[in-house]
Specification:
The structure is a homodimer of 279-residue chains. The first copy, chain A, is α/β, with parallel strands linked by helices and 279 residues long. Chain A contains 12 helices and 8 strands. Chains A and B meet through helix 7, helix 8, helix 9, helix 10 and helix 11 of A and helix 7, helix 8, helix 9, helix 10 and helix 11 of B.
């Protein structure tokens, strides 16, 4: 890669740029964002230059889309003139809809979906961190075998490894189902708990709030703006939510029959395994 | 109080004994527990002497039941010979069933329900800590007005304050409804999430696990032994679970119609208020 273009220089885009630099990237890093964002990105030395999207598309051999999902979907059709041999990739949290949008027969450049499992509560390039991806899973989604074997894809996978992340290739639908269960469903469950408490208890809930309730309502503080796109574009989420509701109904019946032991034991065992705790 | 008897010298009972001592209690502290537990409690200086329950009942003017709820329910009928003027109290996590069991017309000693909102992941007198109740809510449940005004009740409330806790008087049913929403429902939700993930994803879930999922499955590691009694004796929990399931179904419909904004905003506002965050 000689010229990388970061489209959307926020927390993820800015961190990816800083991580590239820290990992020894010698080429040029272009930024495509609003004027204010570019000026912040320049002062953090995340990008070398702010350019319009058209210029980035013509110049870059790595185009990194780090926008919200709905913006990624709007940007993709504008990338048809990207260089042959260039790689376009994105960092959106759902993949099937993006990969569908990225099937552009006329385009010469390759598209590879990506989803770094990294983030923090602060947003914007101000919070960017070259270590953000260190030891994190970085999903790479593709449509056909062989897509990961092109020179551009191989080089991108090397950079993922150099910034400290672990590339995990995965089919887009399998990816969306996995994050539906491990990320998007937990978000909805936390939101529903906080909404239910707010309706049924109001401020009185504070008297009963211990560390457990704080854990269970932390995700509920997430901003709606981030989640709208995610839940709207994950086709696997509705099924995950339906399965969870069925599980709760079953648990309610078992509660009435005092038969919860099996449920508790399976849940405890799974949760310990998730943390690598064995007892 | 000249003689306090701790019945069940585990984490809570042991911590209460250590907290009394630290707060300047000069009387005798008797312990009622198994031989092994009493020997650990003696070496931690939590109790002065281990005695059989019958002796504790005759000698103590404060009887503190820190057993699991099912054991508290079994112990209460054995306390009818407690001294006139003595106070019997308990530390169980649900209150209506215990207060019902504690209506013993022949008994001269007063019964007052209690529930300290304190705990930690380790159990047993080994983990006891005189600071466990510091800055924590300590619910005190009663049946009739005036019960908090007896000399024995007033002195007990003073000790609650001296060990650093905040006594909050509450009707037993209101207490059970509050903890159903703020503690027992979050526990069931976490258990159901872990059970659902275990069924649907198995070990593959680990690849997608971020800090959010770890938060949401921490409670699911709780041991079944502790929770059996709690969920079996909280008559308000089934209603709370039903209301939560209805909330999730509504959220699922809104998800299908892309109308989640209101739900997210209400949930985020509530969760910030719970933490005293205003923005």
């Amino acid at each position: 890669v000689r010229t990388a273009a970061i489209v959307g220089v926020g927390l993820i885009g800015g961190s990816f740029a800083l991580a590239l630099r820290k990992a020894g990237f010698q080429g040029t890093i272009l930024g495509v964002s609003s004027k204010e964002t570019i000026s912040k990105a320049l002062s953090r030395k995340a990008v070398d230059e702010g350019v319009p999207l058209e210029d980035a598309v013509r110049q870059a051999d790595l185009i990194y889309l780090a926008q919200p999902i709905s913006r990624i979907l709007e940007t993709i059709p504008l990338l048809d003139e990207a260089q042959p041999g260039a790689l376009i990739t994105d960092a959106g949290s759902t993949k099937a809809r993006i990969l569908e949008a990225a099937r552009r027969p006329g385009r010469k450049a390759q598209f590879l979906g990506g989803h770094p499992m990294a983030g923090k509560e602060m947003r914007g390039v101000e919070a960017a961190d070259p270590e953000l991806f260190r030891d994190r899973t970085y999903f790479v989604t593709f449509e056909k075998a062989g897509e990961l074997e092109t020179p551009a894809a191989r080089e991108f996978l090397e950079w993922i490894s150099k910034i400290g992340a672990l590339a995990v290739p995965l089919d887009a639908t399998a990816h969306d189902r996995l994050v539906a269960y491990t990320s998007h469903l937990p978000q909805l469950i936390s939101t529903a708990l906080a909404a239910s408490l707010s309706r049924q208890m109001g401020n009185a809930a504070a008297t009963g709030a211990g560390p457990g309730l704080l854990d269970m309502t932390r995700l509920a503080m997430s901003s709606h703006e981030i989640w709208t796109d995610i839940v709207a574009t994950n086709g696997e989420l509705d099924g995950a939510l339906a399965a969870y509701i069925d599980g709760l109904k079953e648990l309610r019946e078992k509660l009435q029959r005092s038969e919860l032991r099996g449920e508790f034991e399976a849940a405890a065992e799974f949760s310990k395994r998730l943390r690598g705790v064995t007892d």
